[in-house]
Design goal:
Layout lengths: L1 E7 L2 H16 L3 E4 L6 E9 L3 H8 L7 E11 L2 E6 L3 H16 L13 E8 L11 E4 L1 E10 L2 E11 L4
Antiparallel strand pairs: 1-3, 1-8, 2-6, 4-5, 4-7, 5-6, 8-9
The structure holds adenosine-2'-monophosphate (2AM).
Length: about 170
């Protein structure tokens, strides 16, 4: 199965991002817009791996305290357009810790530098210059091991395990 580790977004954060997507659509941007229920922040991409329980076990030792994330900026990886986040040392530390736990357990994952973003649209065509990313913040209280499946209607992301922050 295809696995990745992500931070689920709050409903408010999803709504703010959905409003940005609506704005882009009104501006005539075309592409494959991420369905609102699929919006997330990827912390590590594992890809095909047969044993989700083993990965879950490896992630269960990752300790972190709740922290705040705020939207900031808009960016592009080619035709993938995304909303960014204010610099967060806590987020960087969480990604580093859990990637280290995966490595220690021998679970392969994408080694690309962690570049926090929320993908809004893939294969985008149009002009994004007028886009404004609204102010929105959320408290990160957990991260999830996710399964990703290709379906006719698009990607289906299913949480397999959730790992909560320790109480402060
Ligand atoms: P994204 O984080 O830029 O949106 C599931 O495929 C998720 O893992 C997607 O959110 C995807 O992109 C992210 N991801 C990170 N690295 C990936 C890779 N090498 N291949 C596919 N998806 C990857």
């Amino acid at each position: 199965m295809r696995l990745f580790v992500s931070i689920p977004l709050s409903d408010d954060m999803k709504l703010s991002l959905a409003n940005v997507q609506s704005f882009l659509k009104k501006q005539g941007v075309r592409g494959s817009f991420t369905p609102v229920e699929n919006l997330h922040i990827t912390l590590a991409f594992i890809g095909e791996y047969p044993d989700a329980d083993y990965v879950s076990q490896a992630l269960s030792g990752v300790c972190f305290s709740p922290f705040c994330l705020s939207l900031s900026g808009f960016g592009q990886f080619g035709n993938i357009w995304w909303a960014g986040l204010e610099k967060s040392p806590e987020l960087d530390k969480l990604a580093k810790k859990l990637r280290f736990s995966l490595e220690r357990a021998g679970v392969p994952h994408d080694k690309k530098k962690f570049s926090p973003h929320m993908t809004l649209v893939r294969r985008a065509e149009g002009d994004p210059s007028a886009v404004v990313i609204p102010k929105a913040s959320m408290q990160v209280k957990s991260f999830c091991l996710m399964r990703s499946d290709f379906a006719k209607r698009g990607m289906i992301y299913t949480p397999l395990a959730e790992f909560s922050a320790a109480d402060k």
